[in-house]
Amino acid sequence: MGDHHHGPAKGLSRWLFTTNHKDIGTMYLWFSFAMFILGGAFAMIIRAELFQPGMQLVEPGFFNQMTTLHGLVMVFGAIMPSFVGLANWMIPMMIGAPDMALPRMNNWSFWILPPGFLMLASTLFMEGGAPAFGWTFYAPLSTTYAAPSVTFFIFAIHILGVSSIMGSINIIATVMNMRAPGMTYMKMPLFVWTWLITAFLLVAVMPVLAGAVTMMLMDIHFGTSFFSAAGGGDPVLFQHIFWFFGHPEVYIIILPAFGVVSQIIPAFSRKPLFGYASMVYATAAIAFLSFIVWAHHMYTVGMPVAGELFFMYATMLIAVPTGVKVFNWISTMWRGALSFETPMLFCIGFLVLFTIGGFTGLMLSIAPADFQYHDTYFVVAHFHYVMVAGAVFSMTAAVYYWLPKWSGRMYNENMGKIHFWVSFIGFNITFFPQHFVGLAGMPRRIPDYALQFADFNMMSSIGAFIYGASQILFLYNVIATIVSGKRVTDDRVWDGAEGLEWTVATPAPYHTFEVPPAIDPTPAHG
Amino acid sequence: MFRITQNPAIDTVIKLVTVAVAMFAFVFVVMVPLYNVLCDVLGINGKTAGAAYTPVSSAIDESRDIRIQFVATNNEGMPWVFRPGSTMMTVHPGAANDTVFFAQNPTPDPMVAQAIPSISPSRAAAYFHKTECFCFNQQPLDGNASAEMPLQFIVDRDLPADIRTITLSYTIFDVTDRAANTLATR
Amino acid sequence: MSFGNIIRALAGPVLAFASAAVFGQGNQVNMAKGVTEVGAEIYDLHMLILWICVVIGVGVFSVMFYSIIYHRKSRGHEPAQFHESTKVEIAWTVVPFLILIGMAVPATSTLLEAYNTDDAEIDILVTGYQWKWKYEYLDENGENVSFFSNLSTPQSEIYNSQTKGENYLLEVDEPVVIPVDTKVRFLLTANDVIHSWWVPEIAVKKDAIPGFINEAWTKVPEQGIYRGQCTELCGAYHGFMPVEVHAVSREEYDAWLAAKRADKVAQAAAASQALSLDELMAKGEAVYNAQCMACHGMNGEGGVGKAIAGSPVALGDIGRHLDVGIKGVAGTAMQAFGGQMSDVDMAAVITYQRNAFGNNTGDIVQPSDVVNHKKG
To answer: How many domains, in total, are found in chain B?
Structure first.
């Protein structure tokens, strides 16, 4: 496993050539935060344009570039790499492994990301502008009718895909081969479980996305017609392939978030996670179902009625395992000894808002009702409740929870709480009114809207600026902690925290578990 | 679990890379053909068979009248005049029917067109058999020329009883460049 | 549907109160009820699921907040150590499953109803274009009536130099007209990219896909104007291609259709007449504002499209200018307008472009020139 028994190299070469899972995890986390700020800046442009009816700041074509890049950067640049970073830091420490199974590949899978995003961002300066066909890039808008920059977009997606696949392979190889003796599968922390399942999903569907963009490339440059009716193809085929990737992708984003919440809620409830085994099974069930529900994104394309019914029933079923998870978290809190430090606040915020997102998801699964919801702001509200309040809130909770272990310093609790409340309120001001305008008939991805949507849109924009500003507080708090936070010496940091990562010194040494830890042979979770 | 190498981690990697490559191939060799098969079976997008139907002689069901509507659409940039010879006809299931579509190339240059059929309601697609259709092949027309393009079809006797109207739409695409490329590579 | 009525009776006041109390009048917070039968069914279904979710949500969150309030460490609550219960786990797997079945039953029947397009009296072919809709009324005798429907909101309202009208962005120059109490079938397709035709109050949303046709139907019981928009991202001006449906009495519909037919004949006749420069300029300005301005700018300064003011096309050879207008420019957003505009409109707008924005060529292009140019 490479070089042992010495600290990190100095300077730039430490970061360029590192094979240390902690260094790579740190780089992933900082990179994803940078992307979060970039994607957030795009969102601010969108919300500023939508502040009032009429065109004020940008042109409609540029507006579409912003919505497209906002989606791509947030999904592929911010959320996914942030959880990979967290996996890098935590999985070896949670299973008692000295490092990831394939440290060198780990380095590559990170270092191809920045060039990939550089390529994607560079499309903004190309003739015809950046991709403007939405993050779902439906053909033929993304093929026959796309700006020339689409080719660079395709290569960027390929690079991000390769990075994700390498990252996931590494995680699977680590979990399957590097567990400390006695760390059986059913003793693994839930975060490791959710990531293991996520990694399998990634390995299965990122190649499908690669296939979809490769077909686009061939249609654009090599005269095939996968997605063009003129040559015997079909634009609807694109949507099927895209969502065959896209729906599992949704769970790729949310499952690690479930894992994080399942670590943090027990810690601050001072009580073991309720229903550990059922959590594992529910995660697996969600992952399985995610492969057979993709066409619920396409209820209005004119599928045969039998197809609509199948996808409707299958989608509704997802409510069952998701419900089990929510009930388990609440039962974990029930009759615990709760305290409300920042990580717990973000987890409770997650629980409330993700559940609302789940309810709107159930509403959207009802095919005939979806005829009215489809491609409106109701959908935008729904998936931001799941993506932001789900993934981003839990990621934020994770940073606050493990930052003391990583840095050896405690963050400013008051500032953390302010960050939570401002985020929570800002988020709801932004996205709750979007349910209303969506139901009232405002389509998504439009740069200008009818007058009856004006009040709620203004509210939404104000909320977005508040939420955006609160992230600066977060950045400040994290940097201040690392630079001059109060030192933490206790290994456990939080009195209710359980797991191997809390048995190593604080801050976590550069190399941990070079000798496998002894694992308590009694079942940890019951 | 079978082993490929001494190192179990490398083993895992090899297996997973195989899965990833297989999934990439799956898109091309399974999803695309499977989709086309499903389209034929379920009539997704009202697609009809791309080749001529060989009629099995069957009695004509004179008790049912099926209204057939014809619709013609030009895709973007297709300057041809393209319209059905008759916009509507009433047929009996099992009977062979003839009609034509009229096409005219108003430009001075020779062009090649491809017509794409689509049937509504889509579940009727499986029961709409074309024995001859201009859509089976690309249709060339010289500059300023016009043509009547034939269509022969049979509505299946097994057409579900609740379907009384079938709409057959053709969208005509300009494939002059595509046809030229094919010729050039030959 | 009695259950639906109860839901509506409950929901209406609650939501109206909430919206009125917080935001004043005029902010719709819920789905349009829908004037059609299917629309009402979808609304009831929506409300049913919404209330089930609200009830479950209130239950779940009550438990959670009870715990947050009473099971605090700061109140000295000692943590219990239980961490599983098979009975409870089975209960909260089975009960939600049963609730889902309860939802699936009405959802299925509504879906089947929405899919039943049989026996329509009127068939309208709806074609999506970047960025407008074309409507074609199919006729048994081949006397199809067709026209384009463009956004009629002026650019000056969009760019804030004029007060926005009541139906800002939801108004068109030529609405689609249908008779009430008649089953109308819409056949949907597209000319370029995928569009989606949506009118909330008649609960029709269906994608328009290039090369293929989709279908949807409605039977509107009440006269009125129903507005909607394109709901599938279709390029730069996706937000600017509204739908306006006028539901009128059968008599008015017949009269409207007859007038449209007569119009078609009159337009053909007009193409053979010569017009004065002033007439062409006046007409051309109207056509330019409706069709060209979005891309080429209020003063011909350009935008998505090239500038018209001082452009080599507008100042150069008339034949080349007609070519661009009629056939479009391949690979760009400049479409072939030859099939979309009457010959008179084409002549007028070309004349206008050659004489407005400082392009004082003095050229006059007559409808007959357009006809001859099309012949080649």
So the answer is: 2
CB contact under 8 A, B32 and A226: yes
CATH number of domain containing B138: 2.60.370.10
C215-228 pLDDT tens trace:
999 999 999 999 99
Q: Is A127 a catalytic residue?
A: no
A511 is catalytic: no
Q: Is B120 on the interface with C (CB under 8 A)?
A: yes
The catalytically annotated residue of A26, A109, A262, A342 is: A262
Find the helix or strand (DSSP H, E) in which C40 lies: helix C37-70
What pLDDT sits at residue A208? 96
Average pLDDT over all residues of chain A: 93
**Amino acid letter at A225?**
S
Average pLDDT over residues C294-304: 81
**Are the beta carbons of B71 and C140 separated by less than 8 Å?**
no
Q: In what order do the strands lie in the sheet with C122-129?
A: C145-149, C132-137, C122-129, C184-190, C214-218
CA distance B170 to B114: 9
* Residue C346 near residue C337, CB atoms below 8 Å: yes
Owning domain of residue B1: 1-42
In chain B, % helix, strand, coil (3-state, to 5) comes to 30, 35, 35
Report pLDDT for C370: 85
Q: Which of A173, A208, A236 sits opposite B27 (nearest CB)?
A: A208
C78 backbone dihedrals φ, ψ, rounded to 5°? -85, 135
What pLDDT sits at residue B184? 46
> B122: which residues sit within 8 A by CB, 6+ positions away?
A302, A304, B42, B43, B44, B45, B46
HSE-CB at A298 with a 13 A cutoff on CA atoms is 30
**Which residues does chain B have within 8 Å of residue C338's beta carbon, measured at their own beta carbons?**
79
State the nearest Cα–Cα gap between B181 and chain C, in angstroms. Answer: 17
Strand partners, A443: A376
User: Least CA distance to A328: which residue of chain C?
Assistant: C89
> CATH code for A27-503?
1.20.210.10
CA distance C375 to chain B (A): 6
Rounded to two decimals, the ipTM of the complex is 0.91
* Residue contact C189–B46, C-beta within 8 A: no
B115 and B148: one domain? yes
Domain ranges of chain A: 27-503
- Would you state the pLDDT for residue A6? 62
Residue C304: closest CA among C262, C334, C265, C274: C334
- The answer to whether C65 contacts chain A (CB < 8 Å) is no
- Are B103 and B147 within 8 A, CB to CB? yes
One domain, residues B81 and B171: yes
Domains assigned to chain C:
2-115 (1.10.287), 122-268 (2.60.40.420), 273-375 (1.10.760.10)
Judged by CB atoms closer than 8 Å, whether chains meet at A230 and C103 is answered as no
Q: From the list B45, B87, B165, which residue is nearest C212 (CB)?
A: B45
Q: Of B149, B80, B73, whose CA–CA distance to B111 is shortest?
A: B80
**Catalytic hit among A269, A322, A332, A396:** A322
Q: What is the pLDDT of residue B50?
A: 67
Check if B146 contacts C (Cβ < 8 Å).
no
pLDDT digit string (tens) for C116-129? 877 788 999 999 99
Q: Which of C88, C205, C210 sits opposite A300 (nearest CB)?
A: C205
What is the pLDDT averaged over residues C238-260?
Answer: 94
Amino acid occupying residue A415: M
pLDDT, tens digit (0-9, with 9 covering 90-100), for A256-266: 999 999 999 99
Residue of C nearest to B144 (CA): C375
User: Nearest residue on chain A to C163, judged by CA atoms?
Assistant: A54
Cα C203 to Cα C114: distance, rounded to the nearest angstrom: 9
> Given A22, A47, A187, A297, which residue is catalytic?
A297
For an interface test with C, the pick among B47, B86, B171 (most C C-beta atoms closer than 10 Å) comes out as B171
